[in-house]
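Model it.
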Amino acid sequence: MKPQLIIGISGGSGSGKTFFANQLTQHFSKHQIGLVSTDNYYLPLDAQVKDEQGVENFDLPEAIDHQRLCSDLIKLTSGKSIEMKEYQFNQKEVVAKTLTTEPCPVILIEGLFTFYYPQLSKLLDLKIFLEAPEDVMLKRRIARDSHHRGYSLNEVMYQFEKHALPTYKKYILPLKNQANLLISNQHGFDESLPLICDEIEQHLKIVSRQ
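Modeled.
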């Protein structure tokens, strides 16, 4: 198995992690870079912690099956492909796709708690933290969850104020200082994206010579 560069992308809900990761993958072939989203490791609905109002809190570290996530990443680093069901955010009418990630020279892992789980954090060669103001993150979450995931505005506001924001301040923001690169994503990341692409291209050149 050729050397891999494992890149972790973290940040608050609505900071642009998934969009940034997808933008990176579009610059390379599927044989060069593989993407793993921690969203696809959510535990079943009946296993989620409920708040004092009886509402499931998906913005907790316990919401993710991090043991299976770490196990899958170890498989990737040992040259084995992994499969997972695409998480549909409890949209019961949507049939979940089966996603396959092949072992590649570069693996991207994106999600809220990418830096949080010690076993996962140790696997990362490069840590990227995306920052955005709270009002910007809220606007993006409203656009995403109400338009694409079927949540009402009241549900989105409740989850952001009661779940997402407290989680960001308690579990995610304190780990910002672990990052090798901080990216401000208030208006986009046209300047930072080429920097990461250059880093990946350098790694691919080294791998190709081995």
